[in-house]
């Protein structure tokens, strides 16, 4: 592959860039949609007309949609995205490939199984809970371009146990996939309950799935299902599925409080004070036995910093939350989402543990399909 600084004459360099742009065009469009990046179009006139008065709404609600608790919004211009795309070099695939193991679906509760990326099957409190369902080959609005799954699924939707609750942290394509939602809605025994951030229910309604239960939550709001409490927690991120709906739906993570176990899934996030606040908010409940924290999709750093933590940030979030143990997610599954190699996050996480003096077992990653049996609540 020809790299910059190779001494190409100006005309050859121009032709190379033009060819690269043609090759990146379809994939780049799909990536724009998959990440929700592009033009910063905001609320429609109707949305603004019906928005609550500023004095009546929480600080993270705006006339245009939502923002982070620190007042920030993630607004990458098309030029910033294309500049990143045109400068990218495909990282090598892991050699040997990342392993896939058979899940242990007979393991007694509580336990988790990492299916891939941010999709985790958690069994606790008598419920089977699934985070951010993404079972498709691509994390994209189209089937022919965009970030591609390069590690085999250890479980298909048809092989899952009956899912009781699905937690959706935000609407990006690598976290919310239409085909996966339809498959879950059609599971034998009836569709699961979907718990989602504010204003995301309309997306499910548009699917036309009769009788689908969808509950929306704002940050710190909760819903109890069969004795298990689900609380939407704040995160530093953003939302969009097209260039025209930026920040129109909320984003976040979930605290799952069962009698036998307390889990938190942070959702996608940049580093923020949210996690020390979350620890304080739940301190009287005994804290968290396990945290699911993203560790991948962090390069190029300047582009990703505000929206995705790197392993060093993730290790600090583990400390901020005061979790007994953490498991890294959001890595090693989809090629083309970000620039670090798919197997880089575990190495960087190991370095971060050493830097912070954490035991290896305090914050680990799993193999695709691996089931982790968990100790009960303190």
Automatic annotation (TrEMBL):
Keyword Transmembrane helix: no
Domain of life (superkingdom): Bacteria
Any one GO CC term of the record: cytoplasm
Domain Metallo-beta-lactamase: 129-331
SUPFAM superfamilies reported for this sequence: Metallo-hydrolase/oxidoreductase (SSF56281)
GO molecular function, one term: zinc ion binding
Keywords associated with the record: Hydrolase
Record InterPro entries: Metallo-B-lactamas (IPR001279), NAPE-PLD (IPR024884), RibonucZ/Hydroxyglut_hydro (IPR036866)
Alphabetized PANTHER family for the sequence: N-ACYL-PHOSPHATIDYLETHANOLAMINE-HYDROLYZING PHOSPHOLIPASE D
Protein name: Putative Zn-dependent hydrolase of beta-lactamase fold family
Lineage: Bacteria, Pseudomonadati, Pseudomonadota, Betaproteobacteria, Burkholderiales
């Amino acid at each position: 592959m020809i790299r910059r600084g190779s001494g190409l004459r100006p005309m050859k360099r121009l032709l190379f860039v033009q060819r690269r742009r043609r090759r990146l065009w379809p994939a780049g469009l799909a990536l724009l949609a998959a990440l929700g990046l592009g033009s910063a179009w905001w609320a429609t006139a109707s949305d603004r007309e019906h928005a609550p008065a500023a004095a009546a709404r929480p600080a993270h609600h705006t006339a245009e949609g939502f923002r982070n608790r620190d007042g920030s919004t993630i607004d990458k211009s098309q030029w910033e995205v294309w500049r990143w795309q045109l400068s990218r070099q495909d990282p090598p695939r892991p050699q040997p490939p990342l392993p896939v193991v058979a899940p242990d679906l007979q393991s007694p509760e509580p336990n988790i199984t990492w299916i891939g990326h941010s999709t985790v099957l958690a069994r606790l409190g008598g419920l089977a809970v699934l985070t951010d369902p993404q079972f498709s080959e691509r994390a994209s609005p189209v089937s022919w371009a965009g970030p591609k799954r390069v590690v085999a699924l250890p479980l298909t939707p048809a092989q899952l146990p009956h899912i009781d609750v699905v937690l959706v942290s935000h609407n990006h394509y690598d976290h919310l996939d239409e085909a996966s939602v339809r498959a879950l809605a059609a599971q034998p025994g009836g569709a699961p309950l979907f718990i989602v951030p504010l204003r995301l229910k309309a997306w499910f309604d548009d699917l036309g799935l009769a009788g689908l239960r969808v509950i929306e939550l704002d940050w710190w709001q909760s819903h109890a299902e069969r004795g298990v409490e689900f609380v939407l927690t704040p995160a530093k991120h953003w939302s969009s599925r097209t260039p025209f709906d930026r920040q129109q739906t909320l984003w976040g993570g979930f605290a799952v409080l069962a009698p036998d176990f307390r889990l938190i899934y942070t959702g996608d996030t940049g580093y923020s004070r949210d996690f020390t606040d979350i620890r304080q908010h739940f301190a009287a409940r005994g804290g968290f036995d396990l945290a699911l924290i993203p560790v991948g999709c962090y390069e190029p750093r300047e582009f990703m910093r505000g929206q995705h933590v790197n392993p060093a940030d993730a290790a600090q979030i583990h400390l901020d939350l005061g979790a007994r143990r953490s498991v890294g997610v959001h890595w090693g599954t989809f090629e083309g989402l970000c620039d670090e190699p798919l197997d880089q996050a575990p190495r960087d996480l190991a370095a971060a543990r050493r830097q912070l003096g954490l035991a290896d077992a305090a914050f680990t990653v799993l193999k695709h399909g691996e089931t982790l049996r968990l100790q009960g609540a303190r």
